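hey so i finaly got around to running the thing on Trk-type K+ transport system, membrane component from Thioflavicoccus mobilis 8321. pasting the sequence first so u can double check i didnt mess up the copy paste, my clipboard has been acting weird all day
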Amino acid sequence: MSHAAATLMRAARPMVVAGTLGLLLLVLAALSAVPAIVSLVLGDTGLEWRLFGVAALELLLGTLLVRLPRPDDIQWNEALAVTGLAFLLAAGAMVWPLMGNEIGALDAWFEAVSGVTTTGLTTLRDMAERPAGFLFLRAWMQWYGGLGIAVLTVALIMRHHASGRRLLETTGESLTHASARDHARRVLLVYLGLTGLAVFGVWMSGLAPFQALLHGLAAVATGGFAASDRNIAPLPPVSVAVLSAICLAAAVSLPLYAQLWRKGPRALLGEPDVRALIASAVVTAALLALIGVTLDGVAWPRALADGLVQSISAQTDTGFSTVDIAALPAASQLVLIVSMTIGGCTGSTAGGIKLIRLLILIRLVQLALRRTAVSERAVLGANVGTARIEPDAVAAALQLLGLWALVLILSWFVFLLHGVAPLASLFEVASATANAGLSAGLTGPDLAPLLKVVLSVDMLLGRVEILALLVLLYYPTWFGRRRAS
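ok and heres what it spat out for the 3d tokens, dont ask me to read them lol
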């Protein structure tokens, strides 16, 4: 690092980070109280008092921390640190309540991380025998993790415009002229509306109300937790179709839905990444069906139906499954790995690297090819839809792709050192990092403890797009010259 760059850097202010975290803890306290009340109503006494205890502790800490100074504007490294710490705190807070269901500490941590990151991988079995309050807690973690704690905080209790804007930007939200709070509230209303439609739609498809609630919450969050060890395979075909439609809708940028009343369908279909989402799901479904017919001898109607469900699940990074992924041909697993990695739209609940970044890279390749056929002095630009690709967007896309590749390779290497089959281990690592939740059969009670830790780290890195957690470990984030608070 050059001396000039070092003189411009400013370390994060711990009191500012802690004060902002206090606001998030107040929201987490309210979120923790909801499954506590549900458990109380359902009579799950082994869980309710633990959840009430966690909610009380979060409320106490949040009340103390919000008294610390919080300026109207916070630095980028402070916002990233808050985002990273928020997910660590949200997952850590649920470990003790989950352990009340006779689950070990590591498995409880894995389940909590999978929940708040909306991944859906689980090391647990015998879901049909678990208490109703426990199943609701898993679905609830995914629901608020899907929207994001920062968005909820800005929408409900945060008042500082600049600070809220900075927090939302760390989650991938694209703000235009609206204030951060107005934007967050619109996103929250859209999310609540989609949640209501999801639960109602699944209920109308034939599921019991509580089952509809569990699966509806997981679907709108593109989470993938189900109430059966066979995931959604036991559900009626109509329910599976409704859940797939919900997942696809949730993988679209949520702010776009607020424009439907003014622009109509073109508010969605006019966006290049929405069109790319639909095209990717269709292409993936066709490939899976073709592989199923040619290699497994599956009839075309069944191959197309299963292919469509799995393609939507992978493309939206939901994790719902009607088939045994481990039994699929290697070609099908490779197709799913690519689909999970690409993911859905920015500003949605889907994971992955996001389609817009793939579109940017495709446009850059097209631009490079065009340059070979024009004058060296010609000035060419590249657009995605009507938006011009700016250098910052290119740098951000390349940065994320590089970090993604590094995380995948390192995590995969650890699995290979444990003697795990190469394709299955790559599938599991890609699923965790993309917050997809599909499993090739490796994630379970017998998975080595170190590998459970690796996958839980991958899930967190994928949810915060890696940089937020790296900032927490970056020495200059905490040590150096600071601005006055």
